[in-house]
Amino acid sequence: MSGISSTQLSNLPVFQMMSPKELEVLALALSERKLVAGQELYRQGERGSTCHIVLHGALVICLDANGERREVGLALPGELLGEVALLDGGPRSATVCAGPDGARIGELSKADFDQVFGAGSPFAFKLMDLVAGRMVGRMREAMDRLVTAVVAEDERQATGTGATPRS
Fold first, then answer.
1. What CATH number does the domain containing 20 carry?
2. DSSP string, 40-59
3. What phi, psi does 132 have (nearest 5°)?
4. Nearest to 54 by CA among 114, 96, 117, 1
């Protein structure tokens, strides 16, 4: 028994579009994990094979670059993260650790997701829609940031305050 109930999941906004039966399927597929303060869930660059839903506490999201770790976000109860691993099993884009009070999370493995998806469960398709929607949102946000950065660089170049000329 996972210790995660469909009732707990129904209270999370991320799963509001799921029926009680679909939430039961999800609750059965999830494994419960408890992390102590600062415990690493996964490291940037590692292969991903699970996604997570924060049930209690918080997860700290960090980027590792040039030998330094920089905190870039916080995942709070109800937030889903690592979901791209369900699709591609590729490298993690960030390091994630439990917050100062630890965390309780639900973990869905790619193998369990593939089994549910292969069975044609409507839950799997709704989860796929959720993952796709989140990915599209992140892509749009990244494109907005890129456009803003390019425009700012062009303005710096035009005013002569930029460090290097563009060719």
1. 2.60.120.10
2. EEE-TTSBP-EEEEEEEEEE
3. -60, -45
4. 96
**Residue 167 falls inside a structural domain:** no
Domains: count for the chain = 1
pLDDT tens digit string along 122-151? 777 777 787 778 778 778 888 888 888 888
Q: Please report whether residue 155 resides in a domain.
A: yes
**149: in domain:** yes
**8 A C-beta contact, residue 96 and residue 22:** no
CA distances from 15 to 10, 56, 125 (A): 6, 16, 13
| Cα distance between residue 80 and residue 55, in whole Å | 10
54: domain range?
6-159
- 1: in domain: no
**CA distances, 35 to each of 39, 42, 86, 104, 150 (Å):** 6, 12, 21, 6, 40
Q: Is the pTM of this model over 0.90?
A: no
C-alpha 137/C-alpha 81 separation (Å) is 14
Q: What percent of the chain has pLDDT over 90?
A: 35
Angle 60-65-68 from CA coordinates, rounded to 5°: 70
